[in-house]
Amino acid sequence: xxxxxxxxxxxxxxxxxxxxxxxxxxxxxxxxxxxxxxxxxxxxxxxxxxxxxxxxxxxxxxxxxxxxxxxxxxxxxxxxxxxxxxxxxxxxxxxxxxxxxxxxxxxxxxxxxxxxxxxxxxxxxxxxxxxxxxxxxxxxxxxxxxxxxxxxxxxxxxxxxxxxxxxxxxxxxxxxxxxxxxxxxxxxxxxxxxxxxxxxxxxxxxxxxxxxxxxxxxxxxxxxxxxxxxxxxxxxxxxxxxxxxxxxxxxxxxxxxxxxxxxxxxxxxxxxxxxxxxxxxxxxxxxxxxxxxxxxxxxxxxxxxxxxxxxxxxxxxxxxxxxxxxxxxxxxxxxxxxxxxxxxxxxxxxxxxxxxxxxxxxxxxxxxxxxxxxxxxxxxxxxxxxxxxxxxxxxxxxxxxxxxxxxxxxxxxxxxxxxxxxxxxxxxxxxxxxxxxxxxxxxxxxxxxxxxxxxxxxxxxxxxxxxxxxxxxxxxxxxxxxxxxxxxxxxxxxxxxxxxxxxxxxxxxxxxxxxxxxxxxxxxxxxxxxxxxxxxxxxxxxxxxxxxxxxxxxxxxxxxxxxxxxxxxxxxxxxxxxxxxxxxxxxxxxxxxxxxxxxxxxxxxxxxxxxxxxxxxxxxxxxxxxxxxxxxxxxxxxxxxxxxxxxxxxxxxxxxxxx
Length: 659
What we know:
Elements: E1 3-5, E2 10-12, E3 17-35, E4 48-49, E5 55-56, E6 59-60, E7 66-74, E8 84-90, E9 111-115, E10 121-126, E11 135-144, E12 147-157, H1 160-167, H2 173-190, E13 237-238, E14 245-246, H3 250-258, H4 307-349, H5 357-398, E15 423-431, E16 434-444, E17 450-454, H6 459-476, E18 482-487, H7 494-502, H8 514-537, E19 552-560, H9 566-578, E20 584-590, H10 603-608, E21 609-612, E22 617-621, E23 628-633, H11 642-653
Parallel strand pairs: 1-10, 17-20, 17-21, 18-19, 19-20
Antiparallel strand pairs: 2-12, 3-4, 3-7, 3-8, 3-9, 5-6, 6-7, 8-11, 9-10, 11-12, 13-14, 15-16, 15-23, 22-23
Helix pairs in contact: 1-2, 4-5, 6-7, 6-11, 8-9
């Protein structure tokens, strides 16, 4: 089983003969340095393998910059003085990459896979969160008690290779870096330019364009609550490449034609040199990929100004592709069934074909045609689902904590952010045709509408879901920029609220109880909304009273409408409508049937909230084809301490959230 590593994590290596496979999405230079126990290069022996000198004792690297690399390593051939093998990546010089990205922040996330020579994967590492860096110390292989391990490093250097080499104790760091870039330029001059592209590819394997303009509310998603009817468009658009059908979102195809791709096409991103492809560790030359090979997914290959935005757009792109592919399959299956019924009706309408051997044969032929159409549609769907599943496997490990599930290793390296992230994960979405393929449900920050957790089926699970979402929102905001309040009139949510208080993220006050506590807290929050709105209308937002808390506010409401009088109900309706614009957000845990005594008075409030469920439920609709998506909340795995650890780090950064 492949180990997916995060920064700082290590993994034992079972074999000495290895391949390190690099997928970068843009041409990069690969190099290897040999170091001592402190990671400093060993000056009394050859210590560097690069395109100009690709062979080193136990190491072989490619001769030129490319989007895909295979580095051969034989750890058994390493001298005893070599304790660390560093794998380096760098963007080539301007002469070798005209028009290429200026830094790693503008490229897809580089990914490294450590494998056996036969391709069996051992460990993988996606280097996310990069910005102005132009060189990386990607991974290191190091000795521990006569055994070797791999450690995910992902250390970037804005100063490029000179800064990296200087950090490793290279005497003439700038000169060594210049020699590497000169060798890359020389190999580039010998290469043969790739043939022009034959045209756009069909199917979901085609590189994505934009997934919708990420405006204030982000790309259109399943934001409509249960019962919402999305505008159903055509199920699929026909492609023009070899008769295949392009099921990707048409808006993204148009953007793909109008804009240059975010990353060079694969695998033709790197020009091919004369004697290449690069040999494997065993000396055999790998065959070139076939012309119709499927697109290799890369984390962060969607457009965007940062890796976070590219991953966000890529997630919504996967959602759109899944919606379109399933819509095309359902449309084809419905057409086949409709045609079968029409043929059977015609047989029954004619007395000569109602019975007998000829009628039986005609019915069997009609049923066979219907089955053939469905099988053909299913084959296309399975092809697209396999491509999406491969993309999910690549994207999930690269997601930042705010986008990832609680089970993702990214949370083990969590740090309180110093800026507001683009979005936060509220759960996962899937369709009945492929229930195991789950797409993250991301909501832009700050929240533009409140949330309602339906407690009709399981009140305790609903409260656990609310606490999980509240903790995720706390962990996604910078220190002091988010406060949480709770209304628990009867005190029934004490056990569910315990993780928030046990972790120290919330210290005071306890959840407001009783009618007086409910009324007092709602009054303070409604007055806050009034004050902010008046300040905005008067253009004096910067002149709020001294000491005014400008943090976003989240109000968790348990057991609504118990403990609420008419005045409190009206205040809650006001907060649902006007609160988000003033930074006050609702998280209501309630059963709508319990509030039926209020009649239509509360209908506007329910419509203003996004309904979520504590158990998997198919109640969210997409705006394109009206699929009923199954929503699954983002819950902490049983027995995991990740929630406690994350809230503990939040508490360590700031002793208390809220007044």
